[in-house]
Amino acid sequence: EEGAAGRRGERERSEEGLAERGPGAAFHMFVLMEDLLDKLKLLSYEEEALRRHNMRPLSRHYFALPTNPGEQFFMFCVLAAWLIRKAGRPFEQPQEYDDPNAVISNVLSELRSF
How close are the terminal C-alpha atoms of the chain, in Å? Predict the structure, then answer.
C-alpha cells in the first residue's frame, strides 16, 4: 500500500507540475520526439544506423512513451554511438547486453570531450 500511495503522490505532483506549465506541457515530449525523428531522417539514420543492426525505423512517438525500456535504451545507445561516429569520433558500438551504466558513462565521457 505504501508503494502505491507513493506512486500516486508522485503522479499527483507530476500532474500539478504539468498544470503549472500550461495545458500543452503534457504533449511537449511528443513534439520533441517528432523533431528528433525529423532530424534523424535528415541524417539518413534509417540507412546508416538501423540497417546495420537490422532494426525497424522509429515511430514518431518511440521515446515519448515508455513501452519497452530495454529495447528503447538499446535503440538510444545505437543512435548515440552512430551520432558520435558521424561527428568524426571513433566510438565502439555498444552491445545489447552491455552494462547500461558503463554504456552511459562512455557516451557522456565522449560528449564531454566535444
Answer: 47
The domain containing residue 24 runs over which residues? Answer: 9-113
Cell of 28: 511537449
Mapped to the 3 state alphabet, what secondary structure does the chain carry? CHHHHHHHHHHHHHHHHHHHHCCCHHHHHHHHHHHHHHHHHHCCHHHHHHHHHCCCCCCCCCCCCCCCHHHHHHHHHHHHHHHHHHCCCCCCCCCCCCCHHHHHHHHHHHHHHC
Per-residue pLDDT reduced to its tens digit, 53-80 = 888 999 998 998 889 999 999 999 999 9
| 1 inside domain | no
**Joined grid coordinates for residue 39:** 532530424
pTM of the model: 0.74
Residue appearing with cell numbers 565502439: 92
Report the number of distinct structural domains present in the chain: 1
From the centroid of its chain, how far is CA 28?
Answer: 15
Which of these, 43, 57, 32, 38, lies nearest to 85 by C-alpha position?
Answer: 43
C-alpha 32, offset from chain centre: 11
